[in-house]
Write a structure and sequence with these properties.
alpha+beta; Arc Repressor Mutant, subunit A; Alpha-Beta Plaits; 8-stranded antiparallel barrel; two-stranded antiparallel ribbon; 11 strands
């Protein structure tokens, strides 16, 4: 496990807040010289704590929906599981493929723009691997709120109900983009610190045009923000997801308001299927997660019926934009 000191944690938090900040800007916020910030960031990249800097792109705005596939295996071997994971990873509309423990064995998230197209893909999947799927469940993303990694600050930063969030949602109209918009998005998808001048040069286009399109993508909510992709396992954290079932659904908003004050909360999902409320946490161990859930159930014992959970054992891939746009 890589040991992060408080200076590293503050730098990571700022890169998570806005990965396009200059090292000078970050230095002023964390009270360190630019050269020190540059050195520490390089060290974090070389140690693979920072895997890359990515742009949060809202595929809902591009006409996609998010389908989650939950799978329990049977009759498998490690080789067969690796083959199945590779199969999902290679699909152009794959978003995440995650091996998990607990409620399921594998979670796959697919961006879907045409239901029939997804159905054709799923039929092909079943023809190849149905014997290895003991159970399969689906849910459809409606909305996802992702929050900054407040846990990095060791409670030195008070968590507020109005935490900065990155919202993936299909509530508003689908935006029309052209090939230039798409080229800019693909340039930034897994390289959020790429400068607009570098993009303009690579596309042989005026800087002013690229800047105008970039600002438009932000204004329209297609680009939600810029973050650092942190290897949580290397810094001693684990991912847990709680699927909560409610007795009183009208209390859902009260539970959310309360849990927002937890610095380990990283995401709240709204979906059709699986559960009434989905909360995702980064914690140091299972005991920490169970303590969070125990406190939540104690406080809302008249509202929460029960919960089930899973933890991530390996994140196989994360695509920042559908390849088939």
């Amino acid at each position: 496990m890589y040991h992060l000191d408080i200076k590293d944690k503050k730098i990571l938090y700022q890169l998570d807040f806005n990965a396009r900040q200059s090292f000078s800007q970050i230095g002023r916020k964390v009270n360190l010289p630019k050269t020190v910030v540059n050195y520490r960031v390089k060290k974090l990249i070389d140690s693979e704590i920072i895997k890359n800097f990515y742009t949060i792109i809202n595929p809902f705005k591009l006409g996609f929906s998010g389908y989650r596939i939950y799978i329990n295996f049977q009759y498998t071997t490690p080789r067969i599981i690796d083959e199945i994971c590779q199969y999902f990873k290679e699909y152009p509309l794959n978003w995440w493929t995650i091996s998990v423990e607990g409620r399921y064995d594998l979670v796959v998230i697919i961006w879907v723009n045409y239901v029939n197209k997804f159905y054709t893909y799923w039929e092909k999947t079943l023809q190849r691997y149905r014997d290895f799927f003991r159970e399969q469940q689906f849910s459809v993303y409606i909305q996802s709120y992702s929050f900054l990694n407040e846990y990095l600050l060791d409670n030195q930063h008070p968590v507020q109900n109005k935490r900065k969030s990155f919202i993936l949602s299909g509530e508003k109209k689908v935006n029309t983009i052209d090939q230039l918009d798409l080229k800019i998005l693909k340039k930034l998808a897994n390289n959020a610190r790429l400068s607009l001048r570098e993009i303009a040069t690579s596309l042989n286009l005026p800087y002013t045009l690229i800047k105008k399109r970039f600002n438009k993508l932000i204004l329209e909510g297609i680009i939600q923000g810029f973050r650092a992709d942190i290897d949580i396992f290397k810094i001693g954290y684990q991912y847990y997801k709680a699927d909560i079932f409610l007795k009183n659904y009208e209390d859902r908003s009260k539970i959310i308001k309360y849990v927002l004050n937890n610095p380990n909360l990283i995401r709240i999902d709204k979906s059709v299927g699986v559960s009434d409320l989905e909360l995702e946490f980064l914690v140091k161990n299972n005991n920490d997660f169970q303590l969070i859930m125990k406190n939540l159930i104690t406080r809302f014992h008249n509202s929460i019926k029960n919960y089930k959970y899973l933890s991530a054992s390996k994140i196989h891939n994360m695509n920042y934009i559908p390849n088939d746009v």
